[in-house]
Amino acid sequence: MARPPKRKSLRLSLSDIVTRQPDTTGPSCVVTLGGTSLYAPNAEWLNAAIERIQNAIEHAVEEQLLLARNHLEKLTRDKLGEKLSDRVLGAVLGRSLRFGVTSMLPCLTIYGRILRVYFHSRNQVTVNKKLELLDGLLAKRTAVSVDAAQSECFPDRG
């Protein structure tokens, strides 16, 4: 009796998620997060991959009080151990922000640009306390150095 051909296992990596519709004629699944559409060959796998990326983002922001975006992206990629496009990571970060698990604090740099820092929503109380300390410093002086702000907010650090 002839055996049926073995099914080829679907071994996908996070780099298989693309933001442009694939040219292939095979089946493709799409999930739209914000204004970004994510495409992959398998719907179940894509949903699991998005969950995995979101969990890695949330784990990264939970470990630190505040994270700049580039540091958040690096920690997320390190946790995942796979290559991941910036657009895919940004779309899933937007999902985490929309769900309210991750929060963002816009900061004005000395060059007049906005630096967005991210934090886990569980750290909201701690972030608010640090901002109150900084507000008190700024009420006394017109400018505060980074060293003075750090020693006020984190007195245990050397």
Summarize the structure.
The protein is α+β, with helices and mostly antiparallel strands.
- The ordered H/E elements are EEHEHHEEHH
Q: What does the main sheet amount to?
A: 3 strands, antiparallel
* Strand elements, count: 5
Number of helices: 5
Overall 3D form = elongated
Instruction: Determine Rg (CA atoms, Å).
Output: 21 Å
Strand content: 15-25%
CATH class of the domain at 14-121: Mainly Alpha
Strand order of the largest sheet: 3-5-4
Low-confidence parts lasting 5 or more residues at pLDDT below 50? Answer: 4-9
**Secondary-structure class:** alpha+beta
List keywords for this structure.
Arc Repressor Mutant, subunit A; alpha+beta; elongated; 158 residues; 5 helices; two-stranded antiparallel sheet; single chain; three-stranded antiparallel sheet
Write the layout of secondary structure elements.
Elements: E1 29-33, E2 36-40, H1 43-63, E3 67-68, H2 69-80, H3 86-99, E4 102-108, E5 114-120, H4 124-140, H5 146-153
Antiparallel strand pairs: 1-2, 3-5, 4-5
Describe the structure.
The model is unreliable at 4-9 (pLDDT under 50). The strands form 2 sheets. Strands 3-5-4 form a 3-stranded antiparallel beta sheet. It has a domain at 14-121: Arc Repressor Mutant, subunit A (Orthogonal Bundle). It has 5 helices and 5 strands, in the order ββαβααββαα. Helix 1 (43-63) packs across helix 2 (69-80) and helix 1 crosses helix 3 (86-99). Helices cover 46% and strands 16% of the residues. The longest helix has 21 residues, at 43-63. The protein has 158 residues and is an alpha+beta fold. It is elongated.
